[in-house]
Amino acid sequence: MLALLVAGASAAAAPRFALEPAERAYLDARGPLRVCVDPAWPPLEAIDASGRYVGVGADVMALLTARAGIEVQLVSSSSWRDSLAKARARECDVLPMAAPTPDREAWLDFTDPYMDIPGVIVTRDDVHHVTDLVQVLDEPLGALRGFSSVQTLREQYPSIRLVEVDSYREGFEKVQAGELFGMLGNMASVGYALQQDGIVDLKIAGWTGNVTQPSIATRSDEPQLGRIFQRLVASLRSEDLQPILNRWLTVRVEPGFDQRWFWRTTVPILLGLLAAFVWAESLRRLNAKLRLANGKLAESSRRDPLTGLGNRIHLDEQFPARLQTCVRNGLPVVIAMVDIDHFKRVNDGHGHPVGDGALRAIAAELRAAFRREDDLLVRYGGEEFVLLLAGGSIEEALARLQAFRERVAGMTIEAAGVPLNLTVSIGVQAVQPRFGDTAEKLLQAADAALYVAKAEGRNRLVRAPIG
């Protein structure tokens, strides 16, 4: 066996992951996760002759599910398009090797990519090296039907002449017949297909500049499932993936093989793959740093700098999605608007530094009182805060809000060295949302209830009428 990459750790690293009690309870309650895959995309994923799920994706999935103690069952499908259709129809819960597209993101959640695989172009042997895909945009190029790369390429190169095919073999035959100038694909699958079919009159002529980045996709109507797999993917390290790559991205040499074919075709592919994966690992690390930096930037744009809570941008992004999840699953929604009573007197009487200290103190009390994973806390503006409590009991949510109001009323807050006795008024809309309900409508109802609470003397909670 000729190993593609030098072996690192001989086995996956020890698990660095533990499910939270709520996650364990959720998984135990829902039973085995149904998994849909591409049955014919070796060596990344496939169904073998015995009906087993095999390939890079299978090993990654086995590693992650073992790490978290998750039970899965394979859903039979005839093709990748069939798997996507079943996922859309909620007949399966997880796709181990998928890439996001605008269409898919409407019904799937995606983890961060866990691997980068360079894209290549395969041409006839007499074609010169292709240094940039732009050189051949006016030529007919093959691409696998139904893959996210088709949409990505068309968006990136509007004039590209893509011809969708059902398999690499079909694409290679069209290249050999002159119907296609080249066949596009990822380096791992293309190298595997060329070797398996023993093709000697085609070659990898260059990089496309695109990278296949498989993620784990989960059904969007169960966001907790997506959060679990995101944490699992984040627990992966290079020493976890290296043995998997060593296992599947190799070339086996059988006795009596054609040495001329091997030296002419397989060795260049291996060298290209080795260079590509070294480059891909560097790119993966760079992308990870960029994602971290971009994530921090995006996070800061959604945080109120004074209190550290989310801001209105964060609420506008999160509320509609959480509301629709509750509509689909028949879960209640509690939206509360919290206003510090007579806050203008604090600023006018003590100055803005004391007012800022008071806002930070109230925000800290909110965090202490509402710290469940699904509790959304936002500084809405000025002295107003918004709380979104989705999915739990309405009575329990109302009791938590009342307890918070009473706690604030009974405490003395130190703000920039000045003791303050504050109260809050709370307007609440608590409903079982229906189709057609909007985040704006529920916020308006909570705001109207807050107005009533102030008009009735403040330091009280008023629930909006249902209807």
Structure description:
There is one protein chain. The protein folds into 3 domains: 2-112 and 215-252, Periplasmic binding protein-like II (D-Maltodextrin-Binding Protein, domain 2); 117-210, D-Maltodextrin-Binding Protein, domain 2; 312-463, Reverse transcriptase/Diguanylate cyclase domain (Alpha-Beta Plaits), CATH 3.30.70. The chain contains 14 helices and 22 strands. The chain has helices at residues 21-30, 56-68, 80-88, 148-156, 168-176, 187-197, 223-234, 238-248, 259-301, 312-329, 343-350, 352-369, 394-409, 439-455, and strands at 2-3, 33-35, 40-41, 45-47, 53-54, 72-74, 94-98, 108-110, 117-124, 140-144, 161-165, 182-186, 202-212, 215-219, 250-251, 333-340, 375-381, 384-390, 413-415, 418-420, 424-431, 461-463. It is elongated, with a radius of gyration of 28 Å. Mean pLDDT is 84; it is low at 1-15 and 251-264.
